[in-house]
Amino acid sequence: MHEFLLFAPVPVQQHHELLQQLSGLTAMQPRHRLERCLLFKANRKATRINTRLGGGSQDVQGAEIQRLFKMLNGSTYYVRVVGVVNRTDFGASADDYDHESQFWRMEWRDIPEAGIRSGVTSRLIANAALPQGDIVKVMETWGYTFVNEYVVEGDVFIYNDTTLFLHRVLNYPEDSQTAQTPRTTLPPLKDLTLLDRSGSYLLQASITVQDGVSSESATQRLYGLRDQLRTAVKLEQADRLSLDTRVK
């Protein structure tokens, strides 16, 4: 699949007003979203992908993984493993937050394409559903090492086929770092710290199309959205190298 994107920084003092504007534009209330994001680093090119890891409910969606494997095999990348969580999961005991039942998906994002003059960011992407629970063993089997973990908090809007995600990144408190593995419990949400100390948000507007589908329509729709939001935010193409996911 290909993803087409525009981005805009949003100062914290503009956040509430922009939420209202996006609600009016999309005719929907914001869907609040919290994501655990685990970052993994490729140690080497994978040589094989075992799509059955324990059988039964632990089966990985084989077709998705095989497509992803073809993407990953050409080079080595950082990938994200993402799990949606609830506000009540933070500060909960191990009995209340069931780490073993956490659903995960792997997200691979290629470096954006070079030489694109359309004014939007374009990149090849792939997603795959993964087994529940402890995902480190699965990733290590494929040659990936856990690097870090953070939380993304924001609000999602859907406008026709465009996804609008107004979000910011939260870091775990330093005294709760467990460095080598993802957490099995989550600290209180209030204890997390902002990556951007100013509190600013990022608005991401994205359209995903199947490979082989013309990109012109997606580009024009993003242009239209940019014009509609011109008085509120300045949606722009991202710097290509700032989105580089390759392991150096």
TrEMBL record:
Pfam families in alphabetical order: Med18
UniProt keyword Nucleotidyltransferase present: no
Signal peptide boundaries: none
Species this chain originates from: Talaromyces stipitatus (strain ATCC 10500 / CBS 375.48 / QM 6759 / NRRL 1006) (Penicillium stipitatum)
Protein name as annotated: Mediator of RNA polymerase II transcription subunit 18
Compartment(s): Nucleus
Gene: MED18
Function: Component of the Mediator complex, a coactivator involved in the regulated transcription of nearly all RNA polymerase II-dependent genes. Mediator functions as a bridge to convey information from gene-specific regulatory proteins to the basal RNA polymerase II transcription machinery. Mediator is recruited to promoters by direct interactions with regulatory proteins and serves as a scaffold for the assembly of a functional preinitiation complex with RNA polymerase II and the general transcription factors.
InterPro entries xref list: Mediator_Med18 (IPR019095)
Coiled coil: none
Entry GO MF terms: transcription coregulator activity
UniProt keyword annotation of Membrane present: no
A GO biological-process term: regulation of transcription by RNA polymerase II
Primary location recorded for the protein, binned into one broad class: nucleus
Subunit structure: Component of the Mediator complex.
Keywords for this protein: Activator, Nucleus, Transcription, Transcription regulation
Organism domain of life: Eukaryota
Family of this protein: Belongs to the Mediator complex subunit 18 family.
Entry GO CC: core mediator complex; mediator complex
Gene3D superfamilies: Hypothetical Protein Pfu-838710-001
